Every structure is written in C-alpha cells, then in structure tokens.
Amino acid sequence: MTILPPSVVRALERFHAAHPWDHNAHYHPWIMRQLPRRYSRALDVGCGSGDLVRLLAGRSSSSVVGIDSDPVIVRRARDITPPALPVTFTVADAMTGLGDLPDGPAEGSYDVITCVAVVHHLPYADALAVFRERLAPGGTLVVVGLARAEGPVDHLLGGVAVFANLVMAWVKNRGRPAARPVAMSARTQAAEMGFGEVVREARRVLPGCRVRRRLFWRYTLVWRQPTRS
User: Structural domain tally of the chain?
Assistant: First the structure.
C-alpha cells in the first residue's frame, strides 16, 4: 500500500471496518473468463467459504474440490453449499495434502486449478510446482496473489487503489455499514515477495505464464499446461 500519514491510515481503517467488501470475490468473474466453457475436474486451493467453488461447479461435468487449512471455514462452506452441487470441501494443506483428497486424485488430474490470495502464505515456487504437477495436459491454472509494493508503479497503483477502494466499499454497501463478509478470513499475512520476484519465479517454474499487476493490491497469473504430443 502507498505510504500515508498515520491519521489517514486510521481513518481508512475505520471506514473499511464499517464498510467491508471482499476484494478476492471481486476477481471471481475475471477468473471465470480465463477458463473453458466446460471442463471436467477442478480444484480451488484456499477455498474459504466456497464462493468460487460453487461458481466452478456450474461449468464442471464431473466434480470440484475445495481445500482450505481452516476447519471452521470449511465447515461453513459445507453448510451453505446446496447438496445437489458436485463439490467436496476438505481440510487440507496445499503443499502436502493434494494427494490425500477424498476422490484420490493422481498426478495431473485437474483440468482447472484456482488459487486466490493464498499463495503468498506458501513457499511460492514450490507451490507453483505442486499446482503444475496436479494440472492435466491442456489444463488451466489461475492465481490471484498479493505482492509487496516496492517501486513507483506499485505505489502509483496503490494510490489509485486507495481511492477506488473507498468508492467500491461505498457502492457495494450502498453507503451503509455492513457486516464482514463470511468468505473473508480473519487471518492475514503480508506479502513478502515483490512483483519483480513473483514474475521471475513464476516464469522459471511455469514457462510462458502471464503475470499482470492488478488493482486492490493484487496480481494475476494464468498458465496453461502444454498438451502432450
């Protein structure tokens, strides 16, 4: 985020505490535009209360798995998901638990893998390698991540985001105070990697990936697993 006077930061914190909105869900429509119209199996890493999992299920011809390390939010996801949807929510670690999911996925078994605001909690390059290994030939990986602001472009975007964030919070809450969205976890961790390092590591692990800076202190990464000849 941009460097602001402490009094301004406190005022912004008070405003957003009263008018919260889900920055990650804001990118869900964009994520869906990166994916095929139909696919078989999908995985959402760090699924939270399952909003994106339920969107993914609308295009799946088979099943969608959502994993999260927080058992409380996983129970919430199960409770609010219609039983008719072909989805499974599991408490699992993104780095070690993908091979132990209920439907027993083998290497390269998912046509779609999504990961929103989670990868900065993980060993970045190792996490991308795990996703790569679990992605089927021709499959799509979409990541929405957080990076540490470290240069003029980052700080410029941060300044624009501060204003846009106020507008979005006011519009989404129709100017009224609101409760914290269910999908928003109380546990947060600041990103340690700058955008430059994010890009370098991503291109090393996922050659040909597209990485872009985005508003609201996010970046996006899209990569498609090459098909086997």
Answer: 1
